[in-house]
Amino acid sequence: QVQLVESGGGLVQAGGSLRLSCAASARTFSTYGWFRQAPGKEREFVATIAWSGTNTDYADSVKGRFTISRDNTRNTVYLQMNSLKPEDTAVYYCAARYASGISTSRTAYSYWGQGTQVTVSS
User: Fold this and answer.
1) What is the pLDDT of residues 36-93, one digit of tens each?
2) Which residues contact 101 (CB under 8 A, 6 or more apart)?
3) Closest Cα to residue 22, out of 69, 90, 82?
4) What's the pLDDT score for residue 41?
5) Residue 12 in contact with residue 80, Cβ under 8 Å?
6) CA–CA distance from 49 to each of 15, 34, 86, 120 (Å)?
7) Fewer CB in a 10 Å sphere around the end CB: N or C, the chain?
8) Which residues is 112 bridged to in the sheet?
9) What is the mean pLDDT of residues 11-35?
């Protein structure tokens, strides 16, 4: 069974940085995505990356602060988060799919990790 395992979450002060990792247990997926869900809110798109690593997209709220990248030799995707704000506080989920092409839609992804908590204090 394919698993996605996130790590790297934690508590950080506003303005700080965190790097999330997501390791896949099976062969490399074509497309990865990061989503997040704050208490009482729907899960929302954060970033996505295609196989090449050069085709990416970001939510407007994180553009210029977050960077998604991947290492296909390690079946791992990363989310570097800089200049963190209290409103970035959420559970962050890694998602993956075998189909090619980036996607900002939750329904496009078949595989999900268990989530990792990110808390940004003011």
Assistant:
1) 999 999 999 999 999 999 999 999 999 999 999 999 999 999 999 999 999 999 999 9
2) 30, 31, 50
3) 69
4) 97
5) no
6) 25, 9, 25, 25
7) N
8) 95
9) 94
